[in-house]
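Researcher: I'm comparing several assemblies side by side, and this is the next one on my list. It has 1468 residues spread over four chains. Same procedure as the others: predict the full complex and return the structure.
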Amino acid sequence: MTESREQTALPQPKPEQTGYAVIGLGKLTLEELLPAFAVGRASRLAAVVSGDPAEARAAALAYGLTEADAYSYDDFEKLGERDDVHAVYIVLPNSLHREYTERAAKIGKHVLCEKPLATSVEDAEAMVRACKDAGVFLMTAYRCQYTPHHWAARDAVQSGRLGQIKLMHSVNVQVEPNEGQWRLRRELAGGGSLPDVGLYCVNTVRFLLGEEPYEVSGTLYSTPGDERFREVEESVTWQMRFPSGVVAQCACSYGAATARSIDVFGTEGRLAIDPAFDYQNLRLTVQTGQDVTEVRVPPEDQFRLETDHFSRRIQEGCAPYTPGEEGLQDQKIMAAIYQSAHEGGRPVALERFEGRDVFRGAAPERS
Amino acid sequence: MTESREQTALPQPKPEQTGYAVIGLGKLTLEELLPAFAVGRASRLAAVVSGDPAEARAAALAYGLTEADAYSYDDFEKLGERDDVHAVYIVLPNSLHREYTERAAKIGKHVLCEKPLATSVEDAEAMVRACKDAGVFLMTAYRCQYTPHHWAARDAVQSGRLGQIKLMHSVNVQVEPNEGQWRLRRELAGGGSLPDVGLYCVNTVRFLLGEEPYEVSGTLYSTPGDERFREVEESVTWQMRFPSGVVAQCACSYGAATARSIDVFGTEGRLAIDPAFDYQNLRLTVQTGQDVTEVRVPPEDQFRLETDHFSRRIQEGCAPYTPGEEGLQDQKIMAAIYQSAHEGGRPVALERFEGRDVFRGAAPERS
Amino acid sequence: MTESREQTALPQPKPEQTGYAVIGLGKLTLEELLPAFAVGRASRLAAVVSGDPAEARAAALAYGLTEADAYSYDDFEKLGERDDVHAVYIVLPNSLHREYTERAAKIGKHVLCEKPLATSVEDAEAMVRACKDAGVFLMTAYRCQYTPHHWAARDAVQSGRLGQIKLMHSVNVQVEPNEGQWRLRRELAGGGSLPDVGLYCVNTVRFLLGEEPYEVSGTLYSTPGDERFREVEESVTWQMRFPSGVVAQCACSYGAATARSIDVFGTEGRLAIDPAFDYQNLRLTVQTGQDVTEVRVPPEDQFRLETDHFSRRIQEGCAPYTPGEEGLQDQKIMAAIYQSAHEGGRPVALERFEGRDVFRGAAPERS
Amino acid sequence: MTESREQTALPQPKPEQTGYAVIGLGKLTLEELLPAFAVGRASRLAAVVSGDPAEARAAALAYGLTEADAYSYDDFEKLGERDDVHAVYIVLPNSLHREYTERAAKIGKHVLCEKPLATSVEDAEAMVRACKDAGVFLMTAYRCQYTPHHWAARDAVQSGRLGQIKLMHSVNVQVEPNEGQWRLRRELAGGGSLPDVGLYCVNTVRFLLGEEPYEVSGTLYSTPGDERFREVEESVTWQMRFPSGVVAQCACSYGAATARSIDVFGTEGRLAIDPAFDYQNLRLTVQTGQDVTEVRVPPEDQFRLETDHFSRRIQEGCAPYTPGEEGLQDQKIMAAIYQSAHEGGRPVALERFEGRDVFRGAAPERS
C-alpha cells in the first residue's frame, strides 16, 4: 500500500523513475494504463509498442514521448538497446503472453504481464522459468492485491474481526458482446468467462484468506444457440474448499449484466465489497452485530498503485508481491475447475499447501 | 398481498374472523404470532395449547382470552368441540408436525403448519394425505411468499425487467447456540441448518423463479470438534439447476453470524434482498444500468399477512397459495441435497416440471 | 425505552392494562392507534368516541369491544362512569384539544393529547392547569421522544461521541392536498405547516440537545395564487439558537414531496436520521472519521411505545416524560417563530433556561 | 462535460495542448493540480512558480519539466517570454489573487484563479476589468460547475423531474486546525469559513437553480475563547431567497467535523449530493415516490475537467463557463451575508436578476 503521506510528497524525479514499454494499445492501455503512468510516482512511460504505427505514434505524442518512442511488434527487440526502458507491460491477447514474456526476458527486461498469466499451466510454467533464467522479475498484474479497499478487507478477514471465516461468495459477471474480439476465441483467450472475469473471484478469495484451495468442483453453462459461446463457455459456477474449513462459492459469466462482488461470512460478522473489481468506486461494508459500517477508504488510481509497486521492487532488486508463481497457481486452479466441469461436477483435488501466502512476495508497504 | 387500501378499512368484526388455536408457546409464538393475531384483519386468536398450563393461561389472559381458552397437549382433541376454532397453527418441533396435523385433521380443523413441513418426505406426504382425506386445508407457513418485498422482487424477476435470469445466490446463516434446544437434535429437527434456515433459500429461489429445479448438488461441513454439530450438520452449500438455465448457488449455516440475502443476476440487471428473510426491515435493491434503486416497500407485519391469507381462503373455501404440496416439494429437494452430499457432491436428479408455480394455489390478492 | 427483553415476556393480563377511550376516528386512529392498542403491553382499548355512530360501532367490533363501548361526542361524559377507562387519547382537530382535555379532566380521566398540544399558548396553559387542578396526568403525544432510533441519536449527541455539537438541520415537508380538511383552516389548525409538521423539527431538536432555544427567527412563504394557502402558511424556514452555541436551521412545508430528516454536526462527527419522523423504517447513520455506520435499531411500533409509557406512568402514579409543559414550551417557540416572521425575520428572544430537560419528566426506562 | 467517448480517444498531442504556469505550490497544487495536469487532455503543465526555489525545481522534475521551468515570484514576468505558456493558474492566498491576475494580464496570459475570486467586491471588479482590458480570459476555478454529478443534479432540478423546487439546504463544514496558516488571518483570507467553504454552498445552489438570490440574511458564531477565531468567523448560517420562491438555508463552519452536502426539495421529489464538494466519491441520490435511486455517475478527475474546459475555450477563443463575473457575483452575495450578520440578522437586498445563468458563459459540452 502506498502511503497516504506519500501523496503530499512529490513523485520521484522523472529521470529516476522506472521506465516501461507498454505492449498493446487496446482499450485498457488507452483508458487506464497510459493515464496511470502519467501520474506514476515511481513509474513512467518510456515507449509504446503496437501493430498500428500511427496509433503508436499518436499515443507517444499524447503522453509526452516522441515518435521515436513508438515501436512495432517486429521492432520489439530494439527495446533492448534502450537503457531507459527497464520493464515491459504486456497487454496483449492471453495466448501471446508467453511469447512476449520470453522475448522480453531475452533482452533483459523485467515483465509485468496482464492476467491471466497464460492460456495453460504449461505456458505459465514456461514464463516463470524464462524470467528466472534471464534474471528478470515477472509480475502478474493482479490489481486487486494492491488496492486499499482489498487490503482493508484482508485486514478484517485476517485480524479476526469477523471471527472465524466460514463461507465466502464471489461473483463477476458482465455481458460480452459479439464483436469478433479475441476474448470469444478459444485459441487466443484460453477459455471463456473463467480466465477473464472468473479469475478475479479465484484470486481475490485466495488473497483475502491467504490460503490455497485443496479441492474444487465446477459446472459450465452456455445458453443453447447463443453464437457467442460456440468456442468458449458463457458461465461457470464453482466451489473451492480451503484447509481452514472455508467454502467459497463463485460464479462468473459473459451473459449477465455487470455485477462484481465478494462476500465473507464469519462467526462474528460479515463483510462485502460491492462493487468489488471495478477500476473505481469500490464499496466495502463490514457488519458486526446489528450495525453496518461502510469503510470509506480514500480511492486511488489502482493501476498506478500496481505499477509503482513493481517499479519500487525493481529499484530495490526485490521480487514483487504477485510474481509469476502467483499467476501460475491460479492457472492450476482454473484447470482443475474445467476438469471438474468436464467430469460432471465431481470434486477435483489440488496440491495441498498449509502455509500462508505461499506464492506471494513480501507484502507491499502500507500506509 | 393484502391491499394497502385495506389499511384504512377496519378489520372484519372479531366474531366473523377465523379463529385459531396456536399449538406451542415458544419464542416465535410469544414474540411474533400472538402479536400478529392481535392485529389480524381476518384472523383472531381463539385458544392456546401448551405443555405448560401456567404459561398457557398467562398467554390467554395477555391476549384477551380467558383461562378456559388455555389447553394442554392432552386436551388437544377438546378443540373439536369449539365452533369458534376454525384452524390450528402448529408451532412445535419439526418431528411433531405430522402427529398434530393428523390429530387436527381428525377433529376437522384446518392446519397452518410451520416450516419445514416435516422431517421426511414420507411424513410430509402423510400430512398432505391426512388433510385431503379429512377435507381440511393444509398450509405451509412460508411467510416470504406473502410479503410485499418478495412479491416486488418476484415481479422484477418475472416481468423481464432484469432480462433473462442467469444466476442466483442465496445465503441464510446464523449462530445456533448450544443450549440443548431441539434444533440440534436430529430426531426432533430432521437435520441441521438445511431444514431450518437453508429452506428459506430453497423456497424463495423457487418462488421468485416460479420454476422447479431438476438437479441439485451439495456438500456439508461441520467444524471438527464442535459439540453442537454431533447430530446435525453445521453448514451446507448447494447448487440448484432450473429448466430455464438458471443456476442457483446457496449456503446455509448454524455457525456464522446472521446474514440473510438473495441475489438475482439477469442479462439486463440485478436484484438483491438483504436482509432477505428477517421479520422486518427487508431491503430490496434493483440495478439496471449504472443506477441502483432501493425499492422502499411499506413494511407490514409478515405474520399477519400470512395468517390473514389463510383465513380468507378458509372463509372462501379455497386452497391457500402455499399448500402442503409446496412444503412437500421442498422436502424432496432437501432430501436430494443430502443425498448428493453423502455421495461426494455428485449431482442428483429431481423430477422435472415444466409448468410454473406447479405446487402453488391461486396467487394472493395484490395491492 | 421499553426493554427488548420485555419482548419475550408477555403483556400484562388484559384486565390489568390501562384502558383508553380514543376520541376521534380519523386516519391516524384507524391505521395506527387502534392496531397499536391491540399489541399494547400495558395499554388496551376500552372505548371509542366518534361523531359517526356506525363508524364507532364498527371500530369497537373490529378491535374486540362491543357496541356498548362506542360513544358519541355528546355522550363523552358517560365515560366518567366507566371504571375500566383510565385515560382518554384525544385525536381531534387541534382547536378541540383544549375543550376535550378540560372535559376529560372534569370526569377524572388522564389525558394523552395529540400534538400540537393546542392552537395557542393560552389554550396550552389552560390545559396544563385544568389537568393539574383535577389531579390527572396530561401527556403530549410526542412519539419521537419514545422511539429507539431517537434515543440512540440522543445518546450519540449527549455522550460526546460526536464531540461538541455545533450545527443542526431538520426538515419536515409533505404535500398537503386541498381536500377541505381541517388542517388548512386556521381556526381549526391554529396555523399551517409549522404546528403540524414543523413541530417535529422544533421538538426533536430540543429533545436531542436537552436544551431550550433562547432566540428564534423565521420567515414564511406561500406560493402566490395557491388556493390551499389562503388561511395558513405553506412553508416556514426558521433558526433556533441554543445556550451551548448550537444553531439549528429548520424548514417545514405543505408544498414539497415528503422528506423528513434531522442532521447533527459536531466537532468529532455527524449524525443523520433520514427518514426521521416516519412511523416506521427510520434510518440512523453516524459518521466519525471516514467510516459511515448505519445503526440498525430493531424497529418497534412507535405508538405502542408511547401509549405503554403513559400507561405505566399512570399505573405508577408518576408524570410522563413529555407532560403538558413540554407541549406548552413548543407552543411558545412556535409563537415566537411566527412573531419573527411577521416582523420581517428579526430575531425574537425566548425565556432563557440553563438546565437540561427542564420540561420533561423522568426518562423512560431503557433497554 | 467532457464526453465519456473522449475517454477512449487519446489526449491532444502534448505540443498542441494549452500550457499552464501554476503559481503557488501548496497542498492543493501538489496533491491535486499537478496530477490533474499530468492526465490533461487539452492542458499541460509548462512552468511552476513558487517562493521556494528547491520546491519549484523538484516539482518541475517530478512532472516532466526541467529546472529551467521553475520560477520565483520575482521572476513571474519572465513568463511573458514563454510562448508555450498560455495561461497561469493562481493558487495563492486569497489576498494575492488580484495582484497576480493583474500581473498576468499585463504579460498577456489568460488567468485561471482559485476561489474565492478575491477578498473584496472591489478587488474582484478590478480583476475582471484588468483581464478585459488586456484581452485575456479570466476564469473562476469553480470545480463543481464542471463535474458530472453536479450536472446530473442540475439536470434533475431544471428538467422538472423534482417538480417545482421549494427548499434547498447546503452545508460545508470542516475543522480548521490552528497552524498559523493564512486561512485564519483576515488580511490574507478576507474572512473565515464563509469565503473558503461556505462559498461552495452559495455557488452550487446558484448553479443548480440557474437563478440569482434577491435577498439574504445571516448570522455568525464563533466559540467564545477559541484562539483560532480571533480574526475570522468560525461558523455562518445564512438564508438566500430566489425569484422563483426557493428558499435556501446554508451553513458553513471551521469548527465541525467534515460534512459537505446539498439537498433539494421539490413538489415531486428530492435530491441529495452527499458528499457534495469532495474531490472524489460524490454521491447523488434522487427520490421521487417511495424509491430512492443512487445515480452512479462514473467519476472523473474534477480538476482535469475544469482545466481542460478552460484550455479548450482558450483554444477556441471563447469565454469560459465560469468567468470572473461569476466569481464577482458570489463576492457580492458574501458581502451581503456579512452585512446582514453585522446588522443583527435582518434581510439584505441584492440586485434582482430575472434571467438564467446571467453571469455564466456558454455551457460546457456534455457527454
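Model: For your comparison table: The longest helix of chain A spans residues 324-342.
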